[in-house]
Automatic annotation (TrEMBL):
Residues 101-134 are annotated as: Disordered. It is found in: Nucleus. GO terms for cellular component: chromatin; nucleus. This is ARAD1C11792p. Zn(2+) 1 binds at residues 163, 165, 187, 190. Residues 101-113, 124-134 have a biased composition (Basic and acidic residues). InterPro entries: ING_fam, Zinc_finger_PHD-type_CS, Znf_FYVE_PHD, Znf_PHD, Znf_PHD-finger, Znf_RING/FYVE/PHD. The keyword Lipoprotein does not apply. It comes from the Eukaryota. PANTHER family: INHIBITOR OF GROWTH PROTEIN. It comes from Blastobotrys adeninivorans (Yeast). Its main location: nucleus.
Length: 228
């Protein structure tokens, strides 16, 4: 978690720095525009000012894109750190861990139709109490239509999930080289990776298991030598 905290501080500091630079560029553009208003149309200085404004505007766009990119990385880091903490807790409860791995990911958009359906249901009940027979018939027909549409529409297969966060693929991902790895694919942001590592890469769980196996082998060899 200390690495995550350092990464968050670094990202926040970078975002502040990029934001300060963006504000400075905007101030420079305003100054150039005021100067341009007082420059004659046939002056050679006017062309230079226009070029300067165009260059500054390009610089501002680059700065804003970098800010958005860093903010997205910051958000992913926070989300992945949260899931990582939950993952570490769940590892101590095998049943809960297996249930967590199989749990589908429900987005906010998937839950909204339920709320909308509840609102429609309440409205239908209200209309029924008021004696709106025609409206009730319409509601029944709409309900039958929805039911038929559900039966005819193909069901979408759930998107596969990866990493300790149990989320779909996004951004840059890396594979654990250990053939025994249970997860295999991980998000860069969840693992705190910013650049592609050189050589083979192993996830923290596999590294810990490899070290434990190596220690057990070393201990067994020493035990055998002692017996001899």
């Amino acid at each position: 978690m200390e690495d995550v905290q350092m990464d968050l501080r670094r990202s926040l500091a970078l975002i502040r720095k990029l934001d300060d630079k963006s504000n400075q560029v905007i101030s420079d553009v305003d100054a150039k525009l005021r100067q341009l208003q007082h420059t004659a149309a046939d002056s050679s200085v006017r062309a230079t000012l226009i070029d300067d404004i165009s260059r500054l505007f390009h610089d501002w766009k680059v700065l804003r894109l970098n800010t958005v990119s860093e903010a997205q990385y910051l958000e992913d880091t926070v989300v992945c750190a949260t899931h990582k903490a939950q993952y570490e807790i769940l590892k101590h409860d095998p049943d809960a861990f297996e249930q967590h791995k199989r749990a589908p990911i429900v987005s906010r958009h998937e839950t909204e139709p339920t709320r909308a359906g509840s609102a429609r249901k309440k409205k239908q009940q209200s209309e029924k109490r008021k004696g709106g027979i025609n409206d009730v018939h319409k509601t029944v027909r709409r309900s039958e239509f929805r039911q038929r549409r559900k039966l005819t529409m193909p069901k979408e297969e759930p998107e596969p999930t990866y990493c300790i966060c149990n989320r779909p693929s996004f951004g840059q991902m890396i594979a654990c080289e250990d053939p025994k790895c249970k997860i295999e694919w991980y998000h860069y942001s969840c693992m705190g990776i910013r650049k592609a590592p050189k050589g083979d890469w192993y996830c923290p769980d596999c590294l810990a298991r490899q070290q434990k196996e190596q220690q057990e082998k070393t201990s067994n060899r020493r035990s055998m030598r002692t017996r001899r």
